[in-house]
Amino acid sequence: MALPDAAPISDAQSAPPIWAVVFAGGIGSRFWPLSTPAAPKPVLALVGGRPLIADTVGRLDPLIPADRVLIVTSADIAPAVRAVLPSVPESNFLVESRPMGTAAALAWGANEVRRRAGPHTPVCALHADLAAAFPSALRTALHRAAVTSAGEQAIVALGVRPTRAEPSFGYIESGVLLNPMDSLDRGGAAEVATFTEKPSSEAAAALVRAGALWHSGILLGAAQEFLDALERSVPEVAAGLSALRSGDIEGFAAQVRAVDIERGLLERVGRLLVMAPEFGWDDVGTWAGLRRVRDLDDAGNGALGDAHFTDATGNVVHAESGTVVMFGVSQLLVVTRPGLTFVTTLERAADLKPLLDSLPGSARINPGSLGQ
User: Does residue 124 sit in the same domain as residue 203?
Assistant: First the structure.
């Protein structure tokens, strides 16, 4: 994929050092049977040879080095996440005593940046499981978004040109350009007219036809800008902000109610800006999504591990044990690990909840127990 030429960033377009808040909570049941409390989704090497969260943190450097990265995670998976991020200081792990939702996680991270580096410090908020084919272009986009955010005193969302109608994503409809001479395709920014989180399939298709963008899950804004927006627009979080400001993290956790950033903040916030840089974004959300971010053979098969394909098309294989041979099949998922082989279609792999609900708890947490 060719990237558009980016205009050089002038000295006048400087911004203070950017911090990052990375959301890494949850086991990630959509990637069962690999994802377990001992090996949650953020630490799985689903795309290449490194854990997802290590890839995410690595892409930010040198724009955002590891000592300016805060990881918000949950107590049950914190040891596993820490283990794959040795470059991130211990004090930069913000461990939730209970799941609080990403809006509250954003508040905690933004407040910590405000406390350590000042209220006007730019913050990049993002999830641990995104894929970016062009890391240098991503860093350039983050810098430009931080400059725009500071100049406009507003939160900036990074949008992505959609390639399909995907109901599991958020959609951004852009409005008036900040500068009529700078379109989104030329690196400009626009006001957001509407934000719609996870529309129906029909609504997603209509949004794509109307030119809406996907929300990449990446936001830029000053630490205080995030906190003020949360206080104004997200009552589920606003109730605990006083405790957070005073350093009472347990009190904050006790007072907030779980809500995600998209529905809690982005669908409600008074002013939101969007930019649409090209950096090869994709969401590593389901097994089927791996076909878009892994290297594929000529028949569209993607594999990690020892796999062989003959007259087979569009399959995904993740082999941690043994050899997988695919012959005359298409659109299948095969996962092998010691003690378990899991096979389904890529279509059914998008929602494993019915399967997990039917399994005993020990089998969900320790898939190897299925064979005992």
Answer: yes
